[in-house]
Every structure is written in structure tokens, then in C-alpha cells.
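WARN no homologs supplied; continuing
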Amino acid sequence: MPTNTYRAIFTLADEQMGYVTTAQAGSVGVSPMALVMMARRGTVERVSRGVYRLATYPTFPLAHYMEGVLWPAGRTGVISHETALALYGLSDANPGKMHITLPAGFRVQRQTPDYMVVHFTNLPSDDVTRLEKLPITTPARTIRDCIEANLGSSLIKQAVADAAATNRISPMVAAELLRELDAAGHSRASV
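OK structure emitted
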């Protein structure tokens, strides 16, 4: 294996906790067959269809989330909804599944794993940040998504309070989110 092939893969994977997709590798001139050969030699490990991990890369506690956001072939997802609440430590949310968001027009070409819930919406770049290299919705966007998904109001109020107490959202944004929660509650009650 030429050193420049590994270097190209490493550069991509280094930004993603050691993970790289077949499509990303192709964007730097590394063919799918080269990835297969690297896997046979033990340089990379195939973790799922189209997703590889550098074999010698350090393991991160959140690495399985990175694998999840890279799972959709052709597009990187963003950790969102209850999963983002839990990763931020906002409220007592403890989701049983990993929530990711993909663009509204994107169509997944394979069956969604049982451990994952996929949401579709176009996220403005201001609504996406990184947590230990992991793409994740911002705290304010996360709470808005949970309001829209009808997560329990007590968890949302707790998330708003926790986010404000840790300066992840401003007092003005906290008040706005609580108004949105009240408005959503009134509209559900009147339906």
C-alpha cells in the first residue's frame, strides 16, 4: 500500500474518530477495492456497509455515534433529538435508539438499523455544531426538535433549564423555547 493512500485515508478519518466511508475515500482517489485490500491487510476494519475504521486509531467513547452518522450511504447524518439531549447531558432523557437527521430530499437506499431513528429536515449550518468531532444539532435546535417530536414537556422544561444553567443557551433563547413549548401544548390540546 502506498504511503500516500494511507495518508489520504488517515486525513479524512482523523476528523471522524478514525472512521471513513467508501464515498469519502473515493473523493481523495482511494478506490473501493483499495479499501477492501486495506481491510484484508488489517489496516482498516469494515464496520458496516460502506464504513471503515482505521485499525490502529484510538477508540473514542462516542465512536459508535460516529459510525451511526456515517451509516447513510452518500450523506453524513447529524446526531439530533433525544440522542443529542443525552449527549449534552440536558435533562434525564435516555433514548433507546440513536436519532440522526438527514436532509429532507435525501433517500436512504437501505433498511434503517433497529437501533436508529432517522429524521428528515434541512438543517441550517447554524443549527449544527461538533461535540468531540461528532456532528450534532446545537442545544437550542435539539430542544426545538424535541418540542416538534412531542417529547414530554417535563423533559423539555428540564432540558431548557439545564441548557440555560450551563450557558449553552441564553436566557432570551430559554424564554423563547418555553413559549414554543407552551404554544405546541396549546395546539395539541385544542386538536
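The longest strand covers residues 44-48.
OK
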